[in-house]
Amino acid sequence: MISIPYKAKQFLVFLIKLLIVGGAFYFIYRQLAHNEKLDWDQFLALLERKKSIVGIAFILSLSFFNRFFEILKWQNLAQKIQPISLSKSTEQVLAALTAGLFTPNGIGEYAGKALYFPKKEVKEVVFLNLICNGIQMILSIIFGIIGLLILGYWLEVGILLLVVSGISLTLFLFKKITIKGYSLFHFFQKINSLPKKMHRKNIYLAVLRYLTFSHQYYFLFLAFDVNLPYFTLMATIAAVYFLASSLPTFQFLDFAVKGGVSVYFFGLLGINEWIVVFISMLMWFLNIVIPVLIGSIYVLRFKPRLPQNS
Description:
Blueprint lengths: L2 H31 L6 H11 L2 H26 L7 H14 L8 H7 L7 H29 L3 H20 L10 H10 L2 H28 L6 H16 L8 H14 L5 H29 L9
């Protein structure tokens, strides 16, 4: 009688893992097989004409380093709780990415990583993951605003900065207001409590990651015969990432959201729509799909801390 609940929990965990992995594969298939904007004949013709082992290896290496820098970021921050190896950090990041595939803005990643730590550390894991993701968002905002200014959106940026300044001032004035024991003042105190060395490494790795995936975007445009000035193209890429990341979305729809924003902005530069859509799809495939497929293995292998009964 006592062993039944434990076995039921095991079966439930197994079912959840199957649903996560099966759902991941289904949504990936739907995006690739049923998107009317993807002209595979044009893409295959271009690939045949442009095929280069060195070029493909270079683009794949950028995808590797994009995720590798994220893994190093989490390894750096997780040591606040307990030191973890590079392989363990890899498992936690990729499994959490897979678990967060169906949640708005990857919120499920927080729960995914928390499962690897004792229950008493859940709040700390959520906080550290917020720091990990937060610096990436801040960099997207900074580079995105710079990109918009380069492209000549001075008025729009001015309005945006006024709105952000107003929100920041409001938050500052009410920073000590407590809701269920939490306040912005307490949150900023926790941020300051982290070692400066940890903050510096987090920022350094985040910058490297941003430069990696933004230049991967840039080199893919070059591969598709798009020859525009470097700063114009990079400014547009920065603006697209900034605006797309500001929209609430799901990881499995990342390609569609970024693709829609990309078509508008790159269309203003005279770039063919199908090229923009395919590059957005490739970025999604290389930086989301492949890591999720690897993460699915970790999800299936994951063993939660279930109480053992005699």
